[in-house]
Write a structure and sequence with these properties.
Layout: E1 9-13, H1 18-29, E2 33-37, H2 41-53, E3 57-60, H3 70-82, E4 87-90, H4 105-139, E5 146-153, H5 164-184, E6 189-196, E7 209-213, E8 216-220, H6 224-233, H7 242-253, E9 264-267
Parallel strand pairs: 1-2, 1-4, 2-3, 4-5, 5-6, 6-9
Antiparallel strand pairs: 7-8
Length: 273
Amino acid sequence: MAIDLKGRTALVTGAGRGIGRAVALKLAQAGASVMLNDLDRDVVFETGMLIDKEGGAAKAMPGDVTAPDFPEKLVNATVGGFGSIDIIVNNAGYTWDNVIQKTTDEQFQAMLDIHMVAPFRILRAASTYIREAAKKEIAEGKRVMRKVVNITSVSGVDGIAGQAGYGSGKSGINGLTKVMAKEWGRYNVNVNSVGFGFIETRLVAPLGSEIDMKGKKIKVGVQQAVIDAVKTHCPLGRSGTVEEAAGPVLFFCSSLSDYVSGEILIVSGGARS
């Protein structure tokens, strides 16, 4: 069964690289029009060009989803640019790890802001359109299902040492998922989380890499011993690819999940921390 998202508009944050780019490409390949967001201007426009090259429809709006006024601008641009907003994938995020005694207030708050506060603001901004559209559709006797997929992590479910901030943020988004599934069920919106284990992105590359977050250099990556241990502890014997990570997200964005809501799907190759 081919997944058909023609006539649907999706908003994907963190769409410049990794899982976010893979999700955006899959949604576009299924026929959705996609609004792309990323903090990094160059890579998000690159994702847009990839979609254009395949004959898909995409617009890009670079910007910082943690800025208080940006989520509303992003949602308004999506509705203004495509006429609707039917799918929201809250994917933007990064890790900033340390043991708790070395974790600063700034570090902890940054993890909450990107993984929990930003998705909250995006959903709040989208609520006006979603509620008004749903009420009109219901009055006309139509059932139009919309989708929210919040990206979480095994760290937010089982905990990973050294991730007090990241694990708290990812746990928080799971709580928001559960609440919104109950609030928005009346509007025919499915709200679910997909929690990833060890997926091959720059965040789990060998230790020593850095990312630039608003002028601050943040070390990311994991020790080689941890990378090697994945093969030992994962029943599949390997880490996952971004394309494999995007597949379950596509499921939650499609009609195949129309009676699934408030769930947390762990995608870890069978491994749990």
